[in-house]
Amino acid sequence: MIKYKLSGRLSMLAKLADASQRLADIGTDHGYLPLHLLEKGSVEHCILCDINLGPLENAKRSFREADFSDQTEFRLGSGIEPLEYAEVDTVVIAGMGGGLIIDILSQDLKKSKSFETLLLQPMTEQNVLRQWLLGQGFRIKSDHYVHEGSKYYEIIEISDHENDSTFPIHDCSNDLEFGYKITKINKDEYIKFLLYRRHKYEIIVKQLEKSNSQASKFDICFKKLNIIDSILQKVKEEDL
Ligand SMILES: C[S@@+](CC[C@H](N)C(=O)[O-])C[C@H]1O[C@@H](n2cnc3c(N)ncnc32)[C@H](O)[C@@H]1O
After folding, report:
1. pLDDT digit string, tens, across residues 78-112
2. 67: CA distance to ligand 1 center in Å?
3. Protein residue with least CA distance to atom 9, ligand 1
4. Cα–Cα dist 74/60, whole Å
5. Given 21, 138, 156, 235, which is the most exposed site by the fewest CB atoms within 10 A?
6. What's the rounded Cα separation, in Å, for the pair 36 and 49?
């Protein structure tokens, strides 16, 4: 069995994917997430997809010494193209830019919506992706935040299943940079994420003050600080 360490980001995805039966990992590369889920016995079948042959070979190498040949398929292709309509219940698209995730889901919107759960982990443009998802009628069940190294990773969980414990951060979808929905379970981590982002904006504001930079940039950052403060107040007051 190959030795690998699941990052905090992939561990959170594994936790969220725990209830799946059939899972597809789009842009799988090393294939560690499906390998971990199969080793744990929490998922019955995994389809590992990648647009590039090299990464797909990486994934096959990870599985070489594992005995999961009946429970795995490796498919070369772009995004969700290698999947049939409703073929799996969970689709993971992780470690890619938000724009690329939009491109992948746009390939076939009807097919994208045929999967019960989408676990999306954008590395960039999280706000653009959220805006697009809501605009296309996807239901954001919850946002999740993972602190690892010096970064926060964001996971957007899309699911049609109702969950009463979700709490919308925004009534409307004006500024989705700081998430859309959180739950009781991730409230504390979310507050830490907001404080982290607040600190980042404070640093920028101080730099702008020193450099006598454009007033417009200063205004944008100031507005962001105000948004963070109002969300923080709302989240702390809310009895989740
Ligand atoms: C940075 S790796 C992420 C690996 C893994 N998903 C993770 O989160 O650790 C991105 C992978 O996505 C693949 N990729 C890029 N565009 C893709 C697309 N349109 N369809 C499928 N895979 C794609 C790349 O070949 C690469 O293996």
Report:
1. 999 999 999 999 999 999 999 999 999 999 999 99
2. 24
3. 95
4. 8
5. 21
6. 16
Atom of ligand 1 nearest to the CA of 25: 6
Comparing CA positions, the residue from 208, 211, 214, 178 lying closest to residue 196 is 178
- The single residue listed with the structure tokens 């993972």 is 146
Whether the CB of 122 sits within 6 Å of ligand 1? no
Kindly report each contact of residues 63-68 with a partner whose C-beta sits within 8 Å and lies 24 or more positions away, as own/partner.
63/31, 63/35, 64/2, 65/1, 65/2, 66/1, 66/2, 66/35, 66/38, 66/39, 68/35, 68/38
Handedness of CA 49, 31, 119, 101 (dihedral sign): negative
For helices 98-106 and 126-135, what crossing angle results, to 10°? Answer: 30
Smallest CA-to-CA distance from 158 within 144, 178, 137, 138 is with 138
Q: What pTM did the predictor assign?
A: 0.93
